[in-house]
């Protein structure tokens, strides 16, 4: 009888969780599990959760409750919950979904095969929430079970040492731990040699990465030079840690994309200070000007958070103004959600839900207006695009060095490079056509 156990992994949340999901599948495959593309008929379903906003928690818990129906077909099914909700709200998972057999924390990934074995043999929920920092927390550099064959994430660090007053990530992920440069470079080389075209170095605050005298700027240069990967990106950059060295590396290394995700959160210095962000609105804008000078045409994206306790109309109007002043090509916009284990959760909220929704709505409108104005400059111009896959409604989906997605009607090979002329725009996504069938050589011009 075949006694291979089958597992299905479901991942919510940010790129860090997504990468953890890939690492988990490597681990489980290495331990002899069959990785199933669907939850049907599996012995184990693993859910990696996100706790950044209440909405994310509710969504993950809803999915977990829904998964319990698979227990009708297989009463021995083990549902295992990991990620940031597991780390911060294990009791809530036990209360709302008592059938969950294993709850494991964000530093326990490497123990999962043994934990699954233990939980399958137990009638009680197994809890494993220690925040130990094991030396093998990020595992060996390999291609592993990455599903995407063109673009890859490489985790350079875990955790966050900042204490933004609204944010649960530091308690969900623990303090910063940096992965050795040698391993990061090795992984980038392996991926480039295997034909990957795009690498994104990821961490909650990548600019804080360091190893002895080496800082993130130097790491970035070495990855760019030693891997030769055509498109190199990195997220997330905290404005207070973005050094001139990184800006210089971006300007000088041909293969570092001229695109930066630089979360602003608020355009009001007063709110930024209450958030504990460590920079003023003016400092942020000065940083943007330095970037624009070093990298003319750089694409800037950001995160904006509305409705923080005490945010006045005037504070909010400063955020709206900053969208134009920067200007941002796109932004992720969020409504403040009080989180347990954060200092801001002790502040009473000063805005009603309706007021928060209204501010979010007008912010989204402004972001889209500005994104569209930015994109107008791209209309009629040609850019080199990397084809990432088929587009939803036919044709292909590509990505420019600026990070913009571009849809073309032609069906092109995944991983190929084409010269595309932009003939239609929206607030973020572009549309274009491929004027000649000759494939592009990889970008010679950065913007
Ligand atoms: N490390 C990144 C962000 C991680 S969380 C950084 O420092 O920028 C991603 C985004 O979620 C944040 O930038 C913030 O805009 C948003 N966010 C975090 N906590 C939130 C909360 N309590 N309510 C609403 N949005 C939040
Ligand atoms: Fe959260 Fe701030 Fe750390 Fe980003 S830098 S993860 S917002 S605490
Ligand atoms: Fe969410 Fe955890 Fe990432 S809270 S945003 S999955 S670090």
What's the SSE blueprint?
Elements: E1 6-11, H1 15-30, E2 34-35, E3 44-49, H2 54-67, E4 78-82, H3 83-88, H4 90-96, E5 102-104, H5 112-120, E6 126-128, E7 151-155, E8 157-158, H6 169-173, E9 177-178, H7 181-193, E10 198-202, E11 210-211, E12 214-215, H8 216-227, E13 231-235, H9 244-252, E14 259-261, H10 269-275, H11 281-294, E15 299-306, H12 313-325, E16 330-335, H13 353-376, E17 382-390, E18 396-400, E19 405-408, E20 417-425, E21 430-433
Parallel strand pairs: 1-2, 1-3, 3-4, 4-5, 5-6, 7-10, 10-13, 14-15, 15-16, 19-21
Antiparallel strand pairs: 8-9, 11-12, 17-18, 17-20, 18-19, 20-21
The structure holds S-adenosyl-L-homocysteine (SAH), iron/sulfur cluster and FE3-S4 cluster.
Residues 52-53, 166-167, 169, 204-205, 236, 238, 263, 265, 303, 305, 334, 336-337, 339 line the site of S-adenosyl-L-homocysteine.
In short:
With 447 residues, this protein is α/β, with parallel strands linked by helices. It has three domains: 6-128, Rossmann fold (3-Layer(aba) Sandwich), CATH 3.40.50; 151-376, tm_1862 like domain (pyruvate-formate lyase- activating enzyme, Alpha-Beta Horseshoe); 382-433, OB fold (Dihydrolipoamide Acetyltransferase, E2P).
């Amino acid at each position: 009888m075949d006694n291979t156990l089958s597992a299905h992994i479901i991942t919510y949340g940010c790129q860090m969780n997504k990468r953890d999901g890939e690492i988990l599948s490597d681990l489980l495959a290495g331990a002899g599990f069959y990785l199933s593309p669907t939850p049907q008929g599996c012995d184990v379903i693993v859910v990696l959760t996100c706790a950044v906003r209440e909405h994310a928690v509710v969504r993950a818990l809803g999915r977990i409750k829904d998964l319990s129906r698979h227990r009708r077909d297989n009463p021995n099914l083990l549902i295992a919950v990991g990620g940031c909700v597991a780390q911060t709200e294990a009791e809530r998972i036990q209360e709302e979904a008592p059938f969950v057999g294993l709850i494991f924390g964000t530093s326990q990934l490497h123990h999962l095969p043994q934990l699954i074995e233990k939980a399958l043999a137990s009638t009680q929920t197994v809890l494993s929430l220690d925040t130990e920092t094991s030396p093998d927390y990020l595992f060996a550099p390999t291609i592993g079970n990455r599903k995407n064959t063109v673009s890859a994430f490489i985790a350079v660090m875990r955790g966050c040492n900042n204490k933004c007053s609204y944010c649960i990530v530091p308690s969900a992920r623990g303090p910063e731990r940096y992965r050795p440069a040698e391993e990061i470079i090795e992984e980038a080389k392996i991926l480039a040699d295997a034909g990957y075209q795009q690498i994104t170095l990821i961490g909650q605050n990548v600019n804080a990465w360091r190893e002895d005298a080496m800082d993130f700027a130097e790491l970035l240069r070495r990855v760019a030079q030693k891997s030769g990967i055509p498109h190199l990106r990195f997220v997330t950059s905290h404005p207070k840690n973005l050094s001139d060295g990184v800006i210089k590396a971006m300007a000088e290394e041909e293969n570092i994309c001229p695109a930066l995700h630089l979360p602003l959160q608020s355009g009001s210095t007063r709110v930024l200070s209450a958030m504990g962000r460590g920079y003023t609105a003016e400092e942020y804008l000065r940083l943007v000007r330095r970037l624009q000078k070093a990298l003319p045409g750089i694409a800037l994206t950001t995160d904006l958070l509305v409705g923080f306790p005490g945010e006045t109309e005037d504070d909010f109007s400063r955020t709206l103004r900053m969208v134009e002043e920067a200007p941002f090509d796109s932004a992720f916009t969020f409504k403040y959600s009080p989180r347990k284990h954060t200092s801001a959760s002790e502040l009473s909220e000063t805005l009603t839900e309706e007021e928060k929704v209204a501010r979010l709505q007008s912010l989204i409108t402004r972001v889209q207006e500005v994104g569209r104005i930015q994109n107008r400059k791209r209309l009629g111009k040609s850019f080199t695009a990397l084809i990432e896959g088929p587009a939803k409604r036919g044709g292909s989906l590509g990505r420019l060095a600026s990070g913009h997605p571009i849809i073309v009607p032609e069906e092109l090979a995944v991983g190929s490079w084409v010269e595309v002329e932009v003939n239609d725009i929206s607030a973020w996504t572009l549309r274009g056509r491929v004027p000649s069938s000759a494939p592009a050589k990889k970008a010679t011009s950065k913007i």
